[in-house]
Amino acid sequence: MADVDVDQIADWLGRAKDVISEQRAYLTELDSAIGDADHGSNLSRGFTAVVDKLASSTPETISGVLKSSGMTLVSTVGGASGPLYGTMLLRMAGAAGDTATITPERLAAALRAGLDGVVARGKAELGDKTMVDALGPAVSAFEQSIADGKDASAAAEAGAAAAAAGRDATKPLIARKGRASYLGERSAGHLDPGAASVTLLLGALAAALSER
After folding, report:
1. Cβ contacts of residue 182 below 8 Å, gap of 6+?
2. DSSP state of 61
3. Contact 200, 21 (CB under 8 A)
4. Helices (H) and strands (E) in the chain, counts
5. How many CB atoms neighbour CB 55 within 10 A?
6. How many CB atoms within 10 Å of residue 131?
7. Which of 55, 150, 153, 212 has the largest CB neighbor count within 10 A?
8. Partners of 102 in the β-ladder
9. Distance CA 89, CA 16 (A)
10. What are the tens digits of pLDDT across the range 109-129?
11. How far does CA 54 lie from the centroid of its chain?
12. For the whole model, what pTM was predicted?
């Protein structure tokens, strides 16, 4: 299976910035129902800063790109999403290794490390109505695809589909973490905005890895 290179990882983050900016109003609308109504604007600002930083100084390694991006998100995005997404990318950087290319297996391990970082930072589990409900299934699907002999592009497609299913499954849930948990049963009937943005992120990864 073909390795994943640093340009594809940078392309992923650029595509994430584009789709999050395009869907900013949608993410904010979701957040207005059960949160602070700023998820879309916060993430759009953060990923725009990520792309600007990479454009001005592009690291030569995958870990460098991910570390720079994670630190940028932590420093520019307010609320919970900045630390959570930033932690995800920083943990991925640590697992990716200081190289310009990584194997699909190593990318799977990096995604797992990112998920573990989000879980540790947010203290959330599957079923809590958070971004973990999309990210957890996505990482598992990616890993399973690689174990089945699929390439990184196919694994990312599987991950994106699993993220979308996880996102949709948050609608009937009662939030147990974050601002939405204050609403109790009133949080049911709404998609979780974090799960929605994770789905956009995984879709961007699939698109970046399909372009070789």
Report:
1. none
2. S
3. no
4. 9, 2
5. 10
6. 32
7. 153
8. 4
9. 13
10. 999 999 999 999 989 889 888
11. 18
12. 0.94
